[in-house]
Amino acid sequence: MTIREAAESLRRRRFSALELTTAALGRIERFNPTLRAFLTVTAEQALQQARQADADLAAGNDRGPLHGIPIAVKDIFCTRGVRTTAGSPIYRDFVPDHDAFAVARLEHAGAVMLGKLNMHELAYGITSANPHFGAVRNPWNSKHSPGGSSGGSGAAVAAGLAYAALGTDTGGSIRIPASFCGTVGLKPTYGRVSRRGVMPLSWSLDHVGPLTSSVRDAGLLLNAIAGHDPADSSSSRHPVVDFVPDEDCPVRGLRIGFPENFFFERVDSDVELSVRGSIARLESLGATIKPVTVPDISAMNATGRVILLCEASAVLQPYLENRGQFGPDVLALLDQGRLLPATDYIHAQRLRRRMQREFARIWSSVDCLIAPTTPLTAPRTGDTTVKLAGREEDVRLAATRLVRSINLLGLPALSIPCGLNGDGLPVGLQIIGPAFQEALILRVGAAMEDGGVGIPPCPMA
Amino acid sequence: MKDWASTAKAAGLDIPAQDISRIVPTLNSLDEAFRPLAESLTPEMEPAAVFRADEEQA
Fold first, then answer.
1. Domain locations along chain A
2. Chains A, B: CB contacts under 8 A, how many?
3. How far is the C-alpha of A162 from the C-alpha of A180, rounded, in Å?
4. Nearest neighbour of A302 by CB, restricted to B34, B45, B55
5. Which of A221, A209, A215 is nearest to A150 (CA)?
6. Closest partner residue to B23 among A234, A332, A350, by Cβ?
7. Whose CB among A125, A152, A400, B32 lies 3.0–4.6 Å from A120's, allowing a Cys bridge?
8. Residues forming a β-bridge with A72
9. CB distance B55–A233 less than 8 Å?
10. Domain containing B32: what range?
């Protein structure tokens, strides 16, 4: 059931917010021991919020489509009075005295907070095999990774433990779990959603966004969390519009860019087949598919990695005296960042500006781009390499290969499920748009969803 | 290729030798990809860092 369907049923009194929340808590109790998606379940608080939501609705105080809807947030968002670990023992006992901007916005919109979601340690990785709190498992096949770093968010939404979840995306950390878990994942434009109250990994690459079970639900979440925040130096004053696509969202006449280079190179054959099939479906709906050549994405990935390595090591430097409190993969990345000279960081930020200008030229010929989100489906938990087109590749570098550059550019990107591979694991595609054109990419995503692009419900849901 | 162990020593970083050995291949491949890009920059290219002189002071 989507948020929109649940909201409709709440207003028709088919069930109450309390019943909806009780059912969600029951599913968490049943499936979380397997999935390890939640680190903290705030059951009492959730039930109290649900009762209040019911009372408010009965009194005619309707806060909108998220009113009474049970959701959860990655454990990197500060939550007043609720432990916030960022998946690390460094913050094992950290209890914030404030809510993150996005969390406060969701609560203001009437959402019911079920708890905090497991993640890759410090959001610095893509497996969510957290060495301190347990590996999150993929609801489609528990032997496989849910992706990350927002792995708990992807697993919880896919398994129907929450109607939506907040995640963060620094190098693909919303879109990768969305792709691996078969959910929708939206990384908005840099500056569209405030980062205030989100524990940083990389100030200039971190983005906040939702994971949901439908495109229109992602629009609903973005409606609630978008907007200027003077307390976040990167927060934009760009006008906020209604991001939820209309029921009839035509794509006729839209120019959809099909990247001829990079994005379909070294991609798993099932992934390529599903994405190409989905693009053909979009064409049959009236969109114009235009082949385009994109600028050097490998160069953008290298540049993005330099920025991430340097910023993350600066963020976490105070804790590096005690090396034993980091998992080996995270420690290796932190050491790499400390060894890069300051001049490389500055050069990377200079290159970033040039790459932004070069990439922006694409928008004169197409309205958006469509590409695979990840070149592979969910790897088995513990796999460190993957073979794609006969070439052995590091799993982390492979999973981030098609998404990292979009963080560097700060552009909005929406991942939607578009098929299952031969093993029944989800495949995702991403729709990438010009800055602040979230409404456009959501419209294209909704048209594809309405047009039959998608996957069956997760067996666990 | 850079001598990453010497770089660490010069910077006063306390990184065990075996940990440096583990990350050397990754650092070398990143450096190989990044160095030509950095060398292509011209002086007028400014960084994308943000600083506003009119920003309100806390």
1. 3-450
2. 77
3. 17
4. B34
5. A209
6. A332
7. A125
8. A165
9. yes
10. 4-37
The answer to whether the CB of A91 falls within 8 A of the CB of A199 is yes
Numbered residues of chain A with Cβ closer than 8 Å to any chain B Cβ: 204, 230, 233-234, 298-299, 302-303, 305-306, 331-332, 335-336, 338-339, 343-344, 346-354, 356
What's the pTM value of the predicted model, to 2 decimals?
A: 0.97
Q: Do residue B34 and residue A349 have CB atoms under 8 angstroms apart?
A: no
In a domain, B21, yes or no: yes
| Contact call for B30 and A336, based on CB within 8 A | yes
Q: Is there a catalytic annotation at residue A290? A: no
Give chain B's domain count: 1
Q: How close A293 gets to chain B, by Cα (Å)?
A: 20
The answer to whether position B55 is within a domain reads no
Tens digits of residue pLDDT in A53-69:
999 999 999 999 999 99
Q: Mean pLDDT over residues A175-179, rounded?
A: 98
Separation between Cα atoms, residue A64 and residue A225, nearest integer Å: 13
Interval A223-229 mean pLDDT: 97
Question: pLDDT class for B54, splitting at 50, 70, 90?
Answer: low
The verdict on B50 touching A (C-beta cutoff 8 Å) is yes
E strand or H helix at B56? none
Beta-carbon count within 10 A of A204 CB: 21
CATH 3.90.1300.10 describes domain A3-450: yes
The Cα of A250 is separated from the nearest Cα of chain B by a number of Å equal to 37
Is B45 part of a structural domain of the chain?
no
Cβ separation of B45 and A346 shorter than 8 Å?
no
A contacts of B33 (beta carbons < 8 Å)? 298-299, 302
CB contacts, 8 Å: B55 with chain A: 233
Q: How many CA atoms lie within 13 A of B49 on its CB side?
A: 10
| Amino acid found at A34 | T
Binned at pLDDT 50, 70 and 90, residue A248 comes out as confident
Residue A74 a catalytic site member: yes
Residue B57 clears pLDDT 70, i.e. is over it: no
User: Does some domain include residue B10?
Assistant: yes
What mean pLDDT is predicted for residues A311-324? 96
Tokens 């963020």 -> residue: A315
Q: Are the beta carbons of B45 and A356 separated by less than 8 Å?
A: no
